[in-house]
């Protein structure tokens, strides 16, 4: 009798271990081969107190962190470009990390025709990320321009619509570049609406002290691996506090995009690649 109980217990334990191993294998397969390429087009409205009248319902597509060459290839850029064009944005912004490392240039060159396909009447703008500095910045800058993006490195542009205007400012990368927010914002009238592109989201602790209405960032990848009710397992330097989504403090806003590619480990779990479709209100 006891022997029978032991046998049943061993069988049940084996079945339990087998089920657990199967679930772990399925989760590993999903996080490596399915979710990293299952793009999430996230549509959000952001209500901004100082937004000029003519820019109400202005539509921005925000993309970030391709990390080309590390499990993110030209065919994935082609898929992304098709999704963006269907959104019909007024403006497109890219918040850094075109490449993953110095071995990524062939993939970028193959991606150029697809990046050039995405258009917006008020322009395409980009900034640099920390991984871009692993390659020659002159090379990366030239490739971004060949992709149709206007690169902003501690620079600003005035965007006019009808009788109104807003300012778009692009900060150099904080971790590896020479980020200078005072230089970037210099000359913008204090009463003008200002949108800041800054690669690292935790820079919001600095930018929120300046007359910046909305900061758009990437860098964090949302953690890449997130657990329900817990959030990201691992976060990156300058991407820990504001790792994903919309944040607000005293009428200053930040949106952190989860990025398109991956880095370090080619996995995503409960953290799909994100194309953010933002409507200003």
Characterize the structure shown.
The chain is of the alpha/beta class and about 280 residues long. The protein contains 6 helices and 14 strands. A 6-stranded mixed beta sheet has the order 1-14-2-3-4-5, covered by helices on one side. A 6-stranded mixed beta sheet has the order 6-7-8-9-13-12. Strands 10-11 form a two-stranded antiparallel sheet. A hairpin with a 3-residue loop joins β10 (about 225) and β11. α2 runs parallel beside α3 (about 105-115). The longest helix has about 35 residues, at about 1-35. Residues about 10-15 have low confidence and may be disordered.
SSE inventory with pairings:
Layout: H1 2-34, E1 40-46, E2 59-63, H2 74-87, E3 91-94, H3 105-117, E4 124-126, H4 137-146, E5 150-151, E6 155-161, E7 164-170, H5 181-185, E8 194-197, H6 204-207, E9 214-217, E10 226-227, E11 231-232, E12 245-249, E13 252-256, E14 274-280
Parallel strand pairs: 1-14, 2-3, 3-4, 4-5, 7-8, 8-9, 9-13
Antiparallel strand pairs: 2-14, 6-7, 10-11, 12-13
